[in-house]
Predict the structure of Tripartite-type tricarboxylate transporter, receptor component TctC.
Amino acid sequence: MGTRRPRILAALAAVSLAAACSPGDDGGDGGATGYPEQNITIVVPFSAGGPTDTVTRMIADPMAAALGGKIVVQNVEGAGGTVAAGQVARAEPDGYTVLMHHIGMSTAPALYKDLGYQPLEDFATIGLVTEVPMTVVARPGFPPATLADLTAYVKANQDKVTLANAGRGAASHLCGLLFQSAAGVELQEVPYQGTGPALTDLVGGQVDVMCDQTTNTSGQITAGKIKAYAVTTPERVASLPDVPTTTEAGMPQLQVSVWHGLYVPAGTPPEIVQKLSGALQKALADQAVIDQMAELGTAPVTAADATPEAHRAQLEEQIQTWGKVIADAGVQAS
Ligand code: MLT
């Protein structure tokens, strides 16, 4: 630990942060004509009530309406999202099992030695969904008032301050590492199965600090139930106008936004991938979805970004970027 963590922190300090299927005896369209003929399950790799779950439930009904079917959301927690991704990678490639995942899809290959799946080989991309700013937040009553105060406080109390996250490779874990790197500290990390339950503990005062997406923290910040020190994007978030950016607050190196995408197992018929992508694009253009996202500090991506091709290119780039950072840092998960 003594040599590993400084390397992790030093490396992270530098970061500003479809497969074809043979036609069967289905008329040659891979079964897409009647699709969907049964419920579609979107697997969420973190706890119910957390940010990934929230975004998934926002788009599930409009996507189902566009497809003329029903979508069920299932939470499969564990190991920073890799349990769910492994489960979907091994599912039937028939379009009925879909994965919602985020930036963790690109960090897992470098973080986990025995991952059991490869994002680019074992999945077909459906499209990007949204990019969510993060917030640096703390429990009510936590002494520091500003991000500069927080930095000084954690430096003086690093053996006591607890930092919640959703497991290795989760967005909260990566953002927390960047924060520790920028502050030059090593805090006591407390892993959860998602930042939904972590936020409950933060509000309850069981943990001190967390780095988490606005889709989870906005309501509690606005209600004054937790302290917000900064948002991790270059611009302030419209729904949180009083919260400064990390740059304004004196920590410009802490820049993270958390992209989310949809995936199906490789081998899913391209016609079905296209149907799902079209439904995603319709959901993202839905005014109710736009309004709900805006209230939580984010926005749908454009239709051009919500395509299989655009998101695959992004995923390739992100795997390269994070793979290098993580290899340089020497971070590993078991
Ligand atoms: C969640 O849904 O719990 C989060 O996306 C976890 C995280 O990545 O921090």
Q: What stands out?
A: Residues 46-47, 50-53, 102, 104, 166, 170-172, 194-196 surround D-malate (CB under 6 Å).
